[in-house]
Amino acid sequence: MIKVLVYAYMNQIYSSSKIEEVCRRDINFMWLLEGKKIPDHTTIARFRILHFAPCSKKVMAEVTEFLYKAGEISGEVIFIDGTKIEACANKYTFVWKKAVDENLKKLRKKLYALKETEGIEFVHGARSRKSMLQKSIETLEGYLSKLKEYTKKLHICGNRNSYSKTDPDATFMRMKEDAMGNGQLKAGYESEENYSGLEAKRQLAYIKPSNYEISKKRKYKKDIGRAENMEYDAQGVNREALLKGRV
User: Fold this and answer.
1) CA 9/CA 12 separation, integer angstroms
2) Where are the domains of the chain?
3) Rounded mean pLDDT, 212-237
4) Backbone angles phi, psi at 79, to 5 degrees
5) What is the pTM of this model?
6) Which of 43, 118, 176, 215 has the fewest CB atoms found within 10 Å of its own CB?
7) Is 89 exposed, middle or buried (0-12, 13-18, 19+ CB in 10 A)?
8) What is the DSSP secondary-structure string of 10-55?
9) What is the pLDDT of residues 22-40, one digit of tens each?
10) Who contacts 123 (Cβ-Cβ below 8 Å, separation ≥6)?
């Protein structure tokens, strides 16, 4: 059963029902079962929870060690789980730290300019017809209120570039593409434990490109219209430069 699960994960098959389906029709899974009865999706789910989950780290370590001894991996690069979990937050409520910082700088300039121009003192008059000075004071108070708001937003951002108003713990990030192939910018969470572990071991963290899986396919590699598939001909470039020089 472990062999079936590992091979299913290698082929990006995670659903218990889907694993049961491929065990019935895929010759590779039939070979792994060695003639044994095909497990149903309930059995697969129960095995995964009760038996596979507790020993999954050990299995991964043994597989990694086997690949290292076989020369399939160098051991110089570490790949971690980059799963992003979408938050229950409105996608139009994001606050960008850069924008808040810029607005804060502009607001400070307005505060000092208004104070110097009008000679404003922070006083509160009675409810009567407002003079220009009183209006300026109220404008200044509005700026101060915004100043506190921007400072609070910067504090919530911390080391992040953004956060959601409806869920301040969530950060806006690029999610998986939808059915139409469009990238989704949504609020979500990522595992800080992985990044902290890499930082402690002084390892660099890499983000897998969104086209990583499709880039391994033959059709993608043979597409000469893509820049990454174009070969660089240094001799041809030098020859072209010489021809232009003669002209």
Assistant:
1) 5
2) 2-69, 94-164
3) 77
4) -105, 130
5) 0.35
6) 176
7) buried
8) HTT---HHHHHHHHHH-HHHHHHHTTPPPPPHHHHHHHIIIIIHHH
9) 999 999 999 999 888 999 9
10) 137
